[in-house]
Amino acid sequence: xxxxxxxxxxxxxxxxxxxxxxxxxxxxxxxxxxxxxxxxxxxxxxxxxxxxxxxxxxxxxxxxxxxxxxxxxxxxxxxxxxxxxxxxxxxxxxxxxxxxxxxxxxxxxxxxxxxxxxxxxxxxxxxxxxxxxxxxxxxxxxxxxxxxxxxxxxxxxxxxxxxxxxxxxxxxxxxxxxxxxxxxxxxxxxxxxxxxxxxxxxxxxxxxxxxxxxxxxxxxxxxxxxxxxxxxxxxxxxxxxxxxxxxxxxxxxxxxxxxxxxxxxxxxxxxxxxxxxxxxxxxxxxxxxxxxxxxxxxxxxxxxxxxxxxxxxxxxxxxxxxxxxxxxxxxxxxxxxxxxxxxxxxxxxxxxxxxxxxxxxxxxxxxxxxxxxxxxxxxxxxxxxxxxxxxxxxxxxxxxxxxxxxxxxxxxxxxxxxxxxxxxxxxxxxxxxxxxxxxxxxxxxxxxxxxxxxxxxxxxxxxxxxxxxxxxxxxxxxxxxxxxxxxxxxxxxxxxxxxxxxxxxxxxxxxxxxxxxxxxxxxxxxxxxxxxxxxx
Amino acid sequence: xxxxxxxxxxxxxxxxxxxxxxxxxxxxxxxxxxxxxxxxxxxxxxxxxxxxxxxxxxxxxxxxxxxxxxxxxxxxxxxxxxxxxxxxxxxxxxxxxxxxxxxxxxxxxxxxxxxxxxxxxxxxxxxxxxxxxxxxxxxxxxxxxxxxxxxxxxxxxxxxxxxxxxxxxxxxxxxxxxxxxxxxxxxxxxxxxxxxxxxxxxxxxxxxxxxxxxxxxxxxxxxxxxxxxxxxxxxxxxxxxxxxxxxxxxxxxxxxxxxxxxxxxxxxxxxxxxxxxxxxxxxxxxxxxxxxxxxxxxxxxxxxxxxxxxxxxxxxxxxxxxxxxxxxxxxxxxxxxxxxxxxxxxxxxxxxxxxxxxxxxxxxxxxxxxxxxxxxxxxxxxxxxxxxxxxxxxxxxxxxxxxxxxxxxxxxxxxxxxxxxxxxxxxxxxxxxxxxxxxxxxxxxxxxxxxxxxxxxxxxxxxxxxxxxxxxxxxxxxxxxxxxxxxxxxxxxxxxxxxxxxxxxxxxxxxxxxxxxxxxxxxxxxxxxxxxxxxxxxxxxxxxxxxxxxxxxxxxxxxxxxxxxxxxxxxxxxxxxxxxxxxxxxxxxxxxxxxxxxxxxxxxxxxxxxxxxxxxxxxxxxxxxxxxxxxxxxxxxxxxxxxxxxxxxxxxxxxxxxxxxxxxxxxxxxxxxxxxxxxxxxxxxxxxxxxxxxx
Lengths: 536, 695
Prior knowledge:
Structural class of chain A: mainly alpha
Helix content of chain A: 55-70%
Number of domains of chain A: 4
Organism (chain B): Spathaspora passalidarum (strain NRRL Y-27907 / 11-Y1)
Distance between the termini of chain B: 110 Å
Largest interface: A-B, 77 and 69 residues
Number of helices of chain B: 23
Membrane topology (chain B): Peripheral membrane protein
Shape of chain A: elongated
Protein name (chain B): PX domain-containing protein
Helix content of chain B: over 70%
Oligomer: heterodimer
Main location (chain B): cytoplasm
Number of helices of chain A: 16
Subcellular location (chain B): Cytoplasm; Golgi apparatus; Membrane
Order of helices and strands of chain A: HHHHHEEEHHHHHHHHEEHHH
Strand content of chain A: 5-15%
Largest sheet of chain A: 3 strands, antiparallel
């Protein structure tokens, strides 16, 4: 990952206050202590990057001070080290319902998960609002996971249009794939209810409240300085995500303005086409001119339509995608904040334990022992130690899982942005190509206004053949102005499929780290469907 | 018999150079003026029957004076015939107006042919009539009228000298109405009497040559080019109203020229304009290559302004109208361009002068974009002027291009011509509609409204000549309507383009913001691929922004500029219309007065036809009538003249409009195509480079 804090001086505000004291201790060789990694699953613990810089004293020290070892990973997040469980949900359709609340029709397939009564479920129907509630529940109950947010049912495309449905199916399928590919989320018991319930699902475990502070309390807690974070990646991740969140919000606003301006522009262009039509009607003495104005008016009108479509497409492709990213980033940021809050709790618990310990010691050193007091002190010490222990475990689990999640989020963002930019670019190209085509069709109409021809004639007198230089510059052979050959989307897709097949067959070979990682997390079929959606 | 011979020879003289064969004077003008004059001159004949100087056939002064009654009959006959012919002419252009769908040139051709046909028809008819009348003209001479005229020219001093030195001034500003009056008062009676002198003193065969020869001599004075002499002769026509004959012979020059051009148009079936024909004819025309450059800010804070350097290259050193040096460089400010514009407007009534750009509000005068735009417009204006031979040879224009002491010289010329060009109101230039400060500019050309503005005799005037006003107005009211419509449409078009430009500028700003924001996102380095992608994307947005910026500017410079220019030209056209109306108004007023006086005279004459105790009164009255007649006919002539010029100019305007708009639309389309190609290329390259195909 390029976001490497080691390149900079360690001015980490959360720097380990104890690090200095530990400096003279010998750095333990982690690999020796770590059990062999199960490469058969294709799983690589996210600490690989640490290994890459294994000589680095600091990272080793950090590791010493708080990094998890492979064994701990296995113990803390066993879900990540097994592929026994599998859940696949396929969105087969979106039904129209009340505005803003369509019905999702899904098929589900379960493998190895307990408490499911069937292997296959067909035609699960959930309204969008139900899914949103389910999504919220998942976010609250799985503090260690960056639960993706389901994209809004409102797109920038015209409501109930074909484009909207297409887009919704695409983004929702993507969302379903993301939550079902998460090993921790699919173990959530609510999933059983979500899939097995009849029409009219509501969250069963709705009484489970958020275990972290919210509201004013949360706001106050956020004002405190962030507790020391032993995981540099996660420590740096939150500010990055927060910035990304803010910038994306800004970008979305600008894109929105862009789209509105373009819409306005299309109105103006339409206005001009009207004016041109009036002008052509007015021009009744010279048929050539009349024809020219008419054609120009027609082209202008087409251009206005195309501009309008483009303004929608821009928002539909890039704008909606950025909005989805914004939602995601927000939830990630909140999850990271939650982690901080829990870490703070842990610190408090540690302090509590230390205080209890000190108290117990004080009692022990007293000459006269009050057995009740001793008992109470021991009990409270024990309790405090237990709380600390559990919190410690919780923090460790959250941190460990988030290390995985972080990678996934970065991967996803990368892919998502690529996809967005790709579809945006394709739309733009199409838009400009259409305009170009129309513009080229009326060239002749302007040149034949009268027999003196246009400027293109360059004052040559007897140029009977005006057709030169009037061929369409775009054809199946490619563009006449460049050497580029025709870019076939079908062929590209085929190549992509081939590459995926290749990637899957060679998944054991580390020829592409990201790819193999991905295929481990998302299995091949999932990945194919996930990637295959982006067809145009 | 002598008379007969004389007339015959005269007819030969007059007629033989004319390609139309034997012709009567009135018909010649009529046919040329497309039946506009017909009714008016007709009317004169009717009204001025017993006035010796009103005789349309100047050569037959004596004859006509001898047989008033016969003449009256004759005139009546002629009038009938003319009315017939007018009806025919009326009906003849109608297919042309209706055939909107027909190709423009075709139509043009057709019109020309029709006109020609009608000319022939009319001519044959009328000459027939006049021949008849001539046959009847053998009647006893009445000497009384002769004494009348003698007394008249005795009243005047030695006329020839005065007329000679009066001459050169007159052509410079014949139509500026206020001054025009004065010029006429000075010049016309003298010339008139001078010719009378000649007529009476020399043999009658000299009679016809007299005015012609005199004209030639005058022509040689300022014979810079035939086109100029054309203008001069036209002006002279206006100044010598009573000599219908000599006027006709004079008139033949421009007439034949126009017919020549007409035939050229017909034969070539291509759109050749009159100026091109003249170009070939006259090696003396200025051929100038003008460029306007180096806008420089001069003066202190209070008088700060921009001066432009005008560099003129003389391509035709033969030309007498231009100093013989190769290149001249002068500096002028915007105000001076306006001056030359107005000066040319005044010098060439009826000509559509290429206008300078509009005035600018005080703020933003020194904006770079604005100055460049203005420079371009000014250059275009001068080049356009220099391509019109008449204007290019105009001494004022030459002075404008060459004079080192422009301020004083322009003042001097302005004073000489009395044009007041520097103070001339030109709201239309600045986009505002002409305000109704004078009645004629309120825009209505209908006879009723023009009639209502005249003093007195409204009803009678309405009845007496409304029929005749209608005719010339039809074309012009149509044209005016057309020009107004065109202006409206172009304004709308321009507004639309401006709005689009504004919106695009907004879009450009937003694209830049997008680029910056995406750059920020890239700098977060979520991952290497993401950063690369986003940086690339941000670059693309910047390039697209540049592309949009360019095409926007291009559109403004092609379509926007052309439309703006034409809006200004339309302003010029409107000014020309107004000028014409003013002249018409003058003419109309004088005509009214004339008919009133004429009636008085008639009454008096009838009253004292036998006993003559009030000879003085009659004489003075008839003198007044004469003067009025001169005025009327001079205004009529200049009115006809300007109408004719406007028609030609409007035709040219149409051709140029088609040319210019076709060209700018073509540039517009081509540049749009290129910009689309560039956009496609940018996105395709981006797509390839980021390997988005494999995403």
